[in-house]
Amino acid sequence: xxxxxxxxxxxxxxxxAPLRHSNGAHWGRFVRTIIEVETDEGITGYGExxxxxxxxxxxxxxxxxxxxxxxxxxxxxxxFKICNPTASLYNNRTQLFAxxxxxxxxxxxxxxxxxxxxxxxxxxRDQVPFASYLxxxxxxxxxxxxxxxxxxxxxxxxxxxxxYGFTVHKLKGGVFHPDYELECYKALAAAxxxxxxxYDPNAALSVEESIRFGQAIEHLNNDYYExxxxxxxxxxxxxxxxxIPTATNTVVVNFEQLAANILDxxxxxxLLDTTFWGGIRACIKAAxxxxxxxxxxxxxxxxxxxxxxxxxxxxxxxxxxxxxxxxAHYHHLVDDIIVGGKMTYENGAIQVPEGPGLxxxxxxxxxxxxxxxYRELGGYPYDRDPSRPEWFPLVPNDRWAxxxx
Length: 405
What we know:
The chain is of the alpha/beta class.
């Protein structure tokens, strides 16, 4: 079998409301680049990649000459062809390769009539549990769905819990002053005393502020304390002073960083992202290292549509040491580009697909509709906040939004 073509289509799919984070916002929609890898046997595989609100079509077009004629089963050879570590000093293609890997695994599964999880060692669970992903939100175009006050946050969490069955709640912070977000976090704990909590300010806090905040929540039912500050050394200092497991998806996202973390421990839980790490197989390899050294693992979300969600589900299915609920932005989407519409949650979990390959298919009408919407709206800067057009954050930050505004 040989690859004969790769096609990339950029789509934008609306969210229920703009989602705020420490560096800016998702501006009421996700921008994703969908790829289709075609073969000489008529089998097409699907992949997906984000890009901080921007298209990656041109980047994939530049890889076409690497792919034509390549056997999609020869993934390790393709990895070095695209992501040679020395060549990557000049052009880091790890995330591009991840989307291509998704498509090649999809092709393999369709060729062999097997789900991807069977190609990766077989599943150890039939469904993957997820945490709610709570964001402070700007009002949508109808002036609705804002999350700014403590009561709005509690009401939003209760709505998600009732609708989807979540029992783990993650608050994406770093937007308002830490004292205000501490009030919000404590209120969540009081409102949902049986549920686990996570706090993630996206590395916006200083080490000292991270320690102060962490010590103030030690008595709560914390799952982990995610990226309160930037850098392995900063996280190490926080870990030495706060009795909550630390977690990251920012400072341990490759094997060099994983080795450094193991040699001088800074982070207890590694959040594996099928895009950031360069594919499902790299995440499984990293999970094996974590299993050896007794580090926790979870699955990180980088703003997925159904194709990438399928990769997260197949990853979650085959990793024995997945001891934490996965993250997903998925419930914030109003629609998806896959046949059948959005995947469904049941008791806070989603079933692992059992169809050949990734177990999903593209809805061509929706792909065309949301590609046209992207052409109308264009991209957006992930690191800007539409409600504060002249603002940009420092690291550590001290330029907080006003919760009364």
